[in-house]
Design goal:
The chain is α/β, with parallel strands linked by helices and about 250 residues long. Helix content is about 50%, strand content about 15%. The chain has helices at about 5-25, 30-40, 50-60, 75-85, 90-100, 110-115, 120, 135-140, 140-150, 150-155, 170-175, 195-205, 235-245; strands at about 40-45, 65-70, 85-90, 100-105, 125-130, 160-165, 185-190, 210-215. α1 runs antiparallel to α12 and α9 (about 140-150) packs across α10 (about 150-155). Bound molecules: NADP nicotinamide-adenine-dinucleotide phosphate (NAP).
């Protein structure tokens, strides 16, 4: 017998699938074919450190194929081996080329160089950017990026990519635990491309968070860094209330 819970789950799955289909409709043809055929994505992780390895690991568990990269290929090979056959390792260029979706999770000072080196691979792709300008680590370029707003700065460093900022101001260790209580904590995200936002939202949910779109990269997206009112763990409703008090 079908329980109410099963029915709710089926309805939710249908809604999710519908959302995914809408999002897929405006993806490049190769990505559309891939998603329609498998329901799963190829994800390239550029920066397999604390955040990149947790998020990539969660997406492997969710059934996606993930290629990890960093400056240390041996580390990435070991990481991939620990996650099973859906995980692989490569250079940053290989990971960016591999992914229909690319996660960029590096010290902010690496973004300008990566934007140039990976330009051909990330053009037109959904890029989830967790990277934050931290002055103590990234120096003067972080001061400039914070003045401009990290959303806008990232879009200038990664031209042509369909950027969604997310996972910027919750600690990586908590990200690893989010799946235990899915949907309780909201994840503020920002972006300019509705289809990219829909794809990123699905991936945020698979890590265990409820995505909350706060606005555009140049608007409230500037608050998606540590130390702002949107930083830290909050319920989706709390995030919406805080959003209403912020100036774009
Ligand atoms: N830690 C957190 O809890 C947290 C939470 C939210 C957002 N963030 C932000 O997310 C970003 C990543 O944070 P993290 O804590 O994961 O940093 P991390 O542990 O230091 O990892 C950074 C990764 O980027 C790689 N990398 C550095 N330069 C690179 C380049 N030029 N090309 C390719 N890969 C490069 C590193 O490779 P190697 O290890 O080989 O050098 C490493 O895999 C940062 O901007 C951080 O501010 C961090």
């Amino acid at each position: 017998m079908t329980s109410v819970f099963d029915m709710k789950l089926k309805r939710r799955e249908l809604l999710q699938a519908a959302g995914a289909m809408l999002a897929v409709g405006s993806l490049p043809f190769s990505a559309r074919a891939q998603t329609a055929a498998t329901g799963r994505l190829k994800i390239g992780v550029v920066g397999s450190g604390r955040v990149g390895s947790v998020l990539g690991g969660a997406w492997v568990k969710a059934g996606h194929e993930v290629m990890f990269s960093s400056l240390d290929l041996e580390h990435d090979k070991k990481l991939a081996a620990s996650l099973g056959p859906k995980a692989s390792a490569g250079t940053s260029s290989e990971a960016a080329a591999f992914g229909t979706v690319v996660l960029i999770s590096v010290p902010y000072q690496a973004l300008p160089g990566l934007g140039k080196a990976l330009a051909a691979h990330i053009k037109g792709k959904v890029v989830i950017d967790t990277s934050n300008p931290i002055v103590a680590r990234d120096g003067d370029m972080a001061v400039a990026a914070r003045e401009k707003g990290a959303g806008l700065a990232s879009s200038e460093f990664l031209p042509g990519a369909r950027i969604v900022r997310g996972f910027n101001a919750i600690g990586f260790a908590r990200m690893a635990e989010a799946a235990a209580k899915p949907g309780l904590v909201g994840m503020p995200i920002a972006g300019d491309d509705q289809a990219a936002i829909a794809v990123a939202s699905g991936l945020v949910r698979e890590v265990g968070y409820e995505p909350v779109l706060v606005g555009t990269l140049a608007g409230l997206g500037k608050y998606l860094i540590p130390g702002t009112p949107l930083a830290g763990e909050r319920s989706p409703d709390e995030i919406r209330k805080i959003m209403a008090t912020l100036k774009p």
